[in-house]
């Protein structure tokens, strides 16, 4: 076939006879057997000792092809070893000259499956494969596929579109993996989205593949960062910010200084990574992080865009928010105001920078967002007053009650709190983390008191996947409360169901929660929830699938008709059943 002809065409260029030559010889000769013998002599392995060995192999029925093939395989192995050795020996210019000559000689045979590995090996060891050869490889799907990643990098760095095609499915996979964790059916307060350590996350398939594709190539690294920025702008999906940090730290783990030293965020990210590992920003690291932020020089403000993206990573926000809540509790104990705590102010500064990432990259105006004074002078003291309310209530419960009867838990929310959650992004983020904190403490009173403030929040943050994922996990700690009508009405009717019909993701999270806790919910409530949560025509597959699982669980719980009839109380002595007489 034409494929064969093309495959072996390169041999003629090198003065090696091929099948076409043999055909020609045989067509134009008088004595075919003599011609074949002559062709074998001229084109065989030129070793005098073989003259006698080959007839001996013939006697044993070993086909000549098999013999030549094994000699060939042996030689190819030797050649591959030699190429790898050349790549490491002698002066740099000389060794590359040798490899280039070898490539020049062998490239015409690149289509021969038996020779291809050698050609690929030569290219792999060349830091700069000649442009013409790269173009030929690029134009041929099979050759491109067979190339070592070292050669592909050389192709990619001048072909952003081609590199984009390779990276794109990996980025899609990454986002999907994140969403699968957030919507996972395993709900637990012990294991959640933020449980894996940064080091573990960086071992993920996508991060490893991208790290491998980039190698030490700064140009490719920059391209990936550009893709991530563009996608973050287009989708507002914060998981791209996580990948931005993970990729840098993965290169850091491998000590790829070629890239780490030129990424201006490297030291900041490294320090923040240690905080994320501890889920807390300690004082020493806080000083270090502050030093980086204060050290941004005039004319280099663009680095703030990158730093803000690193701080917008949900793992960073989670760490900053948890640290903020811890600081607030400490301040209550020390009787100190938020504005008097430099550590707290730094946490807020970093939260603002992270939360402002999208706007900054979108507007290309690189300056730190202004911190609203009210956040520090009014909102945080308000949160601290909630902490005080809890202390007071707990102490009151323990005091011997006099005639006045027990003191009820404060049930109203200051209007200012609700307003802050609606209008101020940072206040909203910290407020939500405070609610997660009291849920984790199993503080039902505080939870029910603040829950109504979550119905309307800044940019619907209380209905975001990360918050709902954490909230559903923490609610498993209050599972006993689900038997109470009042608790369920507040949680479901008062919060979840207000958004289910307009937000598919909320619908999914409620169903996840109920799949996990349905056996704790009062039967009457369960029935009304089953009606309220029924999917509509517009519902996606995920909601329908969850709803079916939920309904199946409820079917299994319904008592069978036989059980419904009055069963005699077990206190009565059971009637004795006569045993059949043994025959």
Automatic annotation (TrEMBL):
<dbReference type="Pfam" id="PF06209">
    <property type="entry name" value="COBRA1"/>
</dbReference>
<protein>
    <submittedName>
        <fullName>NELFB factor</fullName>
    </submittedName>
</protein>
<dbReference type="GO" id="GO:0032021">
    <property type="term" value="C:NELF complex"/>
</dbReference>
<feature type="region of interest" description="Disordered">
    <location>
        <begin position="557"/>
        <end position="583"/>
    </location>
</feature>
<dbReference type="GO" id="GO:0034244">
    <property type="term" value="P:negative regulation of transcription elongation by RNA polymerase II"/>
</dbReference>
<dbReference type="InterPro" id="IPR010405">
    <property type="entry name" value="COBRA1"/>
</dbReference>
């Amino acid at each position: 076939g034409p494929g064969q002809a093309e495959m072996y065409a390169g041999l003629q260029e090198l003065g090696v006879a091929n099948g076409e030559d043999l055909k020609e010889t045989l067509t134009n000769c008088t004595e075919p057997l003599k011609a074949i013998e002559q062709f074998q002599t001229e084109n065989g392995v030129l070793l005098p000792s073989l003259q006698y060995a080959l007839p001996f192999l013939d006697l044993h029925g070993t086909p000549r092809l098999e013999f030549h093939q094994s000699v060939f395989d042996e030689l190819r192995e030797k050649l591959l070893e030699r190429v790898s050795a050349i790549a490491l020996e002698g002066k740099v210019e000389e060794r590359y000259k040798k490899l280039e000559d070898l490539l020049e000689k062998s490239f015409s045979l690149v289509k021969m499956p038996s020779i291809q590995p050698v050609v690929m090996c030569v290219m792999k060891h060349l830091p700069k494969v000649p442009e013409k050869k790269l173009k030929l490889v690029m134009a041929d799907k099979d050759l491109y596929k067979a190339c070592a990643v070292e050669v592909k990098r050389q192709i990619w760095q001048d072909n952003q579109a081609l590199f984009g095609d390779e990276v794109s499915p990996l980025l899609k996979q990454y986002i999907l993996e994140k969403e699968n964790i957030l919507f996972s059916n395993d709900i637990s307060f012990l294991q959640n989205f933020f449980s894996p350590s940064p080091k573990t996350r960086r071992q993920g398939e996508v991060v490893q593949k991208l790290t491998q594709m980039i190698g030490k190539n700064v140009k490719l690294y920059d391209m990936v960062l550009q893709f991530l920025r563009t996608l973050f702008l287009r989708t507002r999906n914060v998981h791209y910010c996580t990948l931005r940090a993970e990729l840098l730290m993965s290169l850091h783990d491998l000590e790829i200084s070629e890239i780490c030293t030129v990424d201006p965020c490297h030291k900041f990210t490294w320090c923040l990574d240690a905080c994320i590992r501890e889920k807390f920003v300690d004082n020493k690291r806080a000083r270090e992080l502050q030093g980086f932020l204060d050290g941004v020089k005039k004319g280099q403000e663009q680095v703030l865009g990158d730093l803000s993206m690193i701080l917008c990573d949900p793992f960073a926000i989670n760490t900053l928010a948890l640290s903020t809540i811890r600081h607030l509790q400490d301040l209550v104990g020390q009787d100190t105001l938020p504005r008097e705590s430099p550590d707290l102010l730094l946490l807020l500064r970093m939260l603002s920078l992270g939360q402002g990432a999208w706007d900054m990259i979108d507007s290309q105006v690189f300056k730190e967002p202004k911190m609203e004074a009210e956040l520090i002078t009014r909102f945080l003291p308000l949160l601290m007053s909630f902490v005080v309310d809890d202390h007071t209530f707990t102490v009151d419960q323990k005091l011997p009650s006099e005639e006045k009867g027990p003191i009820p838990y404060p049930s109203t929310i200051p209007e200012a709190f609700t307003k802050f959650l609606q209008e101020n992004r940072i206040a909203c983020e910290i407020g939500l983390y405070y609610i997660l904190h009291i849920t984790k403490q199993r503080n039902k009173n505080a939870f029910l008191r603040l829950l109504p403030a979550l119905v309307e929040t800044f940019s619907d943050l209380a209905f975001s996947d990360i918050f709902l994922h954490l909230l559903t996990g923490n609610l498993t700690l209050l599972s006993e409360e689900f038997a109470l009508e009042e608790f369920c009405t507040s949680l479901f009717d008062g919060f979840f169901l207000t958004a289910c019909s307009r937000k598919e993701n909320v619908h999914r999270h409620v169903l996840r929660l109920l799949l996990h806790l349905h056996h704790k919910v009062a039967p009457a409530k369960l029935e009304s929830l089953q009606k309220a949560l029924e999917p509509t025509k517009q519902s996606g597959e995920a909601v329908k699938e969850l709803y079916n699982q939920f309904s199946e669980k409820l079917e299994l719980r319904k008592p069978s008709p036989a059980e419904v009839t009055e069963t005699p109380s077990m206190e009565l002595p059971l009637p004795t059943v006569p045993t059949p007489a043994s025959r």
